[in-house]
UniProtKB/TrEMBL annotation:
EC number from the UniProt entry: 3.1.3.3
An annotated GO cellular component: cytoplasm
Superkingdom classification of source: Bacteria
UniProt name for this protein: Phosphoserine phosphatase
Organism listed in the record: Andreprevotia lacus DSM 23236
Signal peptide range: none
Length: 279
């Protein structure tokens, strides 16, 4: 048996009643003003529920009825456009007036049209000669957490979950976020800097889709967790292997390819919506 979690900024009572009928749920409970759980939902009615929710701009998720926030032992997150609202490399590029060129490459990579490693190498090369101080300006002036990020993290952390931030972005930003949000672990690419300026290169191996999946598996095994005790959240094509490796792989305001392939999807609400699955 499952519970059907429905989320959106505004949810009509009549829509909840129709979803209860479509899913054969026997009870509707409020989680909060933007989230409701329908108990006893039948997952074999998934297609009808999905169609209705898409037509009415509602987020939905079928969650095993006995799943609880205390069961989740690990939450793995992408950074850019997932934990935070910006693509850091695009904003760094804006400091030297080349944001459109870099953003086009970023978008193509996130849609899965370009190899991520190749795309990152090309984008970082365009930043050669930029003052290192530009990174701090991006963090201080432009970086914002995704709506609901702190609420989600606090809820999972208080229930005992470990957290992993793994990004195809840069350690300058993941390190600051790790401290700010008390994250268990953070992994990202290291920008090569010489005499206070970016060289246009990355030190060490690039964090790509395979690395994200590998690090999730390694941390899961280190903690002795089952697959269904892991949540992973991302928005780009390079997150898909990681999302499929988690018990709950969630596409967050993601690219169409990722929404289509991820097991779960959040489009109407913020990251608190992932926590609401388990409350």
């Amino acid at each position: 048996m499952h519970r059907l979690v429905i989320q959106a900024p505004n949810i009509a009572t009549q829509d909840l009643k129709q979803l209860a009928r479509l899913s054969d749920a026997y009870q509707i409970d409020a989680i909060n003003q933007q989230a409701f759980r329908l108990l006893g939902a039948h997952i074999d009615n998934d297609e009808a529920v999905a169609d209705f929710c898409e037509s009415n701009q509602l987020d939905y998720a079928f969650i095993p009825e006995d799943a609880n926030v205390h069961d989740i032992g690990l939450v793995v997150m992408d950074m850019d456009s997932t934990l935070i609202t910006i693509e850091c490399i695009d904003e760094i590029a804006d400091m030297v007036g080349i944001k459109p060129q870099v953003a086009d490459i970023t978008a193509a990579a996130m849609r899965g049209e370009l190899d991520f490693r190749e795309s990152l190498t090309r984008r970082v090369a365009l930043l050669a000669g930029l003052e290192e101080s530009a990174l701090a300006r991006v963090y201080d002036e432009r970086l914002q957490l995704m709506a609901g990020a702190e609420k989600m993290l606090k809820g999972f952390q208080q229930a005992g979950a470990k957290t992993l931030l793994i990004s195809g972005g840069f350690t300058f930003f993941t390190g600051k976020l790790q401290t700010r949000l008390s994250l268990s672990r953070a992994i990202a690419n290291v920008l090569e800097i010489d005499n206070g300026k970016l060289t246009g290169k990355v030190n060490g191996d690039i964090v790509d889709a395979e690395r994200k999946k590998t690090e999730l598996i390694a941390f899961r095994e280190e903690l002795g967790l089952r697959r269904d005790q892991v949540v992973a959240i991302g928005d780009g094509a390079n997150d898909l292997p990681m999302l499929h490796e988690a018990g709950y792989g969630v596409a967050c305001h993601a690219k169409p390819k990722v929404k289509a392939e991820a097991p779960y999807s959040i489009n109407q609400v913020g990251l608190e919506g992932v926590l609401n699955y388990f409350l």
